[in-house]
Design goal:
Number of strands of chain A: 3
Number of helices of chain B: 13
Structural class of chain A: alpha+beta
Oligomer: heterodimer
CATH architecture of the domain at 2-60 in chain A: Roll
Mean pLDDT of chain B: 94
Largest sheet of chain A: 3 strands, antiparallel
CATH superfamily of the domain at 2-60 in chain A: Phenylacetic acid degradation B
Order of helices and strands of chain B: HHHHHHHHHHEEHHH
Radius of gyration of chain B: 22 Å
Bound molecules: fe (ii) ion
Strand order of the largest sheet of chain A: 2-1-3
Mean pLDDT of chain A: 92
Largest interface: A-B, 20 and 29 residues
CATH class of the domain at 2-60 in chain A: Alpha Beta
Distance between the termini of chain A: 65 Å
Strand order of the largest sheet of chain B: 1-2
Distance between the termini of chain B: 58 Å
Strand content of chain A: 15-25%
Helix content of chain B: 55-70%
Structural class of chain B: mainly alpha
Helix content of chain A: 10-25%
Chain lengths: ~90, ~325
């Protein structure tokens, strides 16, 4: 079997000044082709104004087993949210 | 459906499950999505590869009967519409292959399994598209049946599969409408001959469309396991019933007769009674003996083999460019 084209992850910026968002993946021989294919597959209905592609194997992801150590510490830090603080009504909008 | 008779692995009762398996099932029961790198039972992974793979193959092979009519569409507008529709199906195949690949199978492996006949695609695409009314009927009934299945699968437990389904569903309703629109034109504004063509297409596609949902699954163990894992949400019979009920008024509006003398409204169950398709025919088609099985597979294999030099050439070019870029970087340092 011939060597398989590498897998790329596709990120697209939608119309409204948003961040690029992951929309899916595709195979392509190089970055230029990945952009062309991403345009054909993921923006056929005005879904974007800008495309990023990155080789899937160059993405470093956190491990699912690290979910606890990574994200649980912030659960108890409720004071990071504005609703933690009671502001007297007389003060007005804050 | 697009995935018919997918064999599910390892049906287990709660008592037979390990702690890990029970925790996994609890997550699914809570409505959590399972993501690629997370732990999952081997049976869940294998069943999903089979189901998503078969679904992807169906999208790709499904391009063939319609692609057949792109060059012969009656107007430039119809041609552009059909081209866009068939192009969407290529995209659907890609979303689904990508979802399957997150489960640890490669694209080439999936294609090899399709080409060797080891993996199947939907039985519906082994029927020929003989005239222009067939293209209308395929959009209306075949995409209509596919939508029925895909809408519920948006809620499936596997994250990448669910996201692919959401994307696909957004694109599908155009497919069904463009098909119905072809038939509106032929049946309501066309000549008597054109209306006859539409009726002929309906006669040939009705039962194969009903077969898309697969045989009755009331006693299927596989089905129960798949539903427990939420990789199947409704039973085949529920979806088939919904499809029939939805289609009856649409056919009536076109003035087409559904080729089933037993079709009638059943007040008590709040749905139509209708005849089962010929399941022997279904099993024959699945086994490879439908009218177009050989032709479809050959078209896929030929496209793959004829494209090999091109895929290899582009890969060789990409490697050379990479090496050149690396050398230039080194020289600049
Ligand atoms: Fe599709
Ligand atoms: Fe479609």
């Amino acid at each position: 079997m011939s060597s398989e084209w590498p897998l790329w992850e596709v990120f697209i910026r939608g119309q409204h000044g948003l961040n690029h968002r992951h929309v899916g993946s595709l195979h392509a021989s190089d970055a230029e082709m990945a952009i062309c294919n991403a345009r054909d597959v993921y923006t056929r209905r005005n879904e974007g104004v800008s495309i990023w592609v990155v080789k899937s194997n160059e993405i470093t992801a956190s491990a699912p087993s690290d979910k606890g150590p990574l994200f649980e510490p912030s659960n108890s830090k409720v004071y990071r949210h504005p609703t933690f603080f009671d502001i007297p009504a007389e003060v007005g909008h804050m | 459906m697009y995935a018919q008779m997918v064999k599910a692995e390892g049906a287990k009762s709660r008592e037979e499950m390990s702690d890990q398996e029970r925790a996994f099932q609890d997550r699914i029961d809570r409505g959590e999505k399972i993501e690629p790198k997370e732990w999952m039972p081997e049976g869940y992974r294998k069943t999903l590869i089979r189901q998503i793979g078969q679904h992807a193959h169906s999208e790709i092979v499904g391009q063939l009967p319609e692609g057949n009519w792109i060059t012969r569409a009656p107007t430039l507008e119809r041609k552009a519409i059909l081209l866009a529709k068939v192009q969407d199906e290529a995209g659907h195949g890609l979303y689904l292959y990508s979802a399957a690949e997150t489960l640890g199978v490669s694209r080439d492996e999936l294609l090899a399994a399709l080409h060797s006949g080891k993996m199947k695609y939907s039985s519906i695409f082994n029927y020929p598209t003989l005239n222009w009314a067939d293209i209308g009927t395929v959009g209306w009934l075949v995409d209509g049946a596919a939508i029925m299945n895909q809408v519920q699968l948006q809620k499936t437990s596997y994250g990448p599969y669910s996201r692919a389904m959401i994307r696909i569903c957004k694109e599908e309703s155009f497919h069904q409408r463009q098909g119905y629109d072809i038939l509106l034109k032929m049946c309501l504004q066309g000549t008597p001959e054109q209306k006859d063509m539409a009726q002929d297409a309906m006669n040939r596609f009705w039962y194969p469309a009903l077969m898309m949902f697969g045989p009755s699954d009331k006693d299927s163990v596989h089905s129960a396991q798949s539903m427990q894992w939420k990789i199947k949400i409704n039973t085949n019979d529920e979806l088939r019933q919904k499809f029939v009920d939805q289609t009856v008024p649409q056919a009536k509006y076109l003035g087409l007769t559904i080729p089933d003398p037993n079709l009638k409204w059943n007040e008590e169950k709040g749905g139509h009674d209708f005849s089962e398709p010929d399941w022997d025919e279904f099993f024959e088609v699945i086994a490879g003996n439908g009218p177009c099985n050989a032709e479809r597979l050959e078209a896929r294999v030929t496209a793959w083999e004829d494209g090999a030099w091109f895929r290899d050439g582009l890969m060789a070019h990409a490697k050379k460019q990479d090496a050149r870029r690396a050398a230039a970087r080194l020289a600049a340092e």
